[in-house]
Request: fold
Amino acid sequence: MMMDVLHKHSGWIEVICGSMFSGKTEELIRRLRRAQIARQRVAIFKPEVDNRYSEKEIVSHSDQKLASKAVRNSKQIINNALEAQVVGIDEAQFFDPGLVDVCKTLANMGKRVIVAGLDMDYRGEPFEPIPKLLAIAEYITKTHAICVVCGNPANYTQRNTKDTAQVVIGAADIYDARCRNCFVPPEKETKQENKNK
Ligand code: ZN
Reply:
């Protein structure tokens, strides 16, 4: 019977994005849990690079968990998702650019694809492949954290180290959430320091 429903409805892509500490993974887990309660077959993936909390689960900062498969690249998702009706992908910003086509393929196969990830890096610049996924998604949710400086809704991730690599894995030890007014991009920070000298 479920197959009849699937034949009638086509697949689609949902993107959940925002800064760190904005509840992206929590929202992803909420949606996937509801699908599981409806007895839909769910497959969940995360990139192997992100093992901050757990190898076999996606875990939100508030410690909610769901069993997931860690994969080395986006290509490995399709073969492992063939039986699934709903595909969840966490920390999408750590995947290769091929993730965009993988999501398209899965949606074209009639699957509901839910992708969560950072939309901007620590410089406040768009973080691929999320921007491209936003363009092709049917549904977009922007989640907001709360600015640690002023309490406004926060859209930016502030890195509190001098590291200049785009990907530096960490949590509250390295990063905090900032609003537009309180976010200090790294270059600006350097200039301000030079002025002080
Ligand atoms: Zn602020």
Notes: Residues 147, 149-150, 152, 178-179, 181-182 surround zinc ion (CB under 6 Å). Residues 98 and 151 are 37 Å apart (CA to CA). The radius of gyration is 18 Å. The chain has a mean pLDDT of 89.
